[in-house]
Description:
Distance between the termini: 27 Å
Number of helices: 8
Helix content: 25-40%
Amino acid sequence: MNDNLIFFMNAFMFELEELLNKNLGYFDDVRFQFDEANTDQQIKIKIKEFILNNFQKINSVTEIKENGKDALISRDDFKISNVKVPSELTEDDKLFVRSSRTAVYTNPDLLLFISTGNTEYRVSVEVKSTKNDKIPGSSIQQIDINDWVIFLKHDDKHIIEFVTGKYIDSISGTMQFPDRSPRPQVSYNILKEWNKDYRSFNDGILTFKEDKNQKDKLQLIEDWQLLLSNRWMNTLKSKRKNTNEPWFNNNIRKFAVLLLEYYESLTQEEKEEYINYIKSNITGDDDE
């Protein structure tokens, strides 16, 4: 994604958040039949309609400042020409998204079509909903650090508030295990607090401060296996057992005893060979 498109998306998502929160009544007919799951078709369709009917060009942001970069924003440079929900995606759309992502492909919740001059871009957006705060996010292999998210909080009858931003800035740092594939937890409140701490808007200038703590979230995405391994080691090194531990902590201890007993039964030469053998069988995420 080129810099100009990133700048536009920063401005677009900021203004979209403000506009959605000023028009919560537009979504009063939405019903969440599958709470805390990413299968809310009604809200995806309503957000699509809202964007196409009310917000195809940015209005208030005139300048973007982010990580030492400064760019003027013209409301006429980019335009939202279309929005698609998953059921509307063509094979060409899927191929385009697949080729532009660094992560494993999954259908985007919303696909924005953005026109500038003779060029048209397609940008994926995730839609997450919660009644409280934290929910399991996408599978680790499906997360691209450039993904965008529209996160909404609701009760049984109404949407309470929207917050938007980069998907990575919604990650809480917690990851549930086991699962068919690890799913880093995402948090409505964490994304909202990130926006409060690192995003500001004044006199048409939208500014993003550098988040020096983001490296921990990047590690979670880029080497989640090491993160889990370190967590398990901390469990094994702890001198006391905590209350309300997840069930697999006990399984980790049982496995560690078996491994240590086997390792201690080996000669020194066999120990070195065994460690090298294990290391030689460690694969990267792409090999799984």
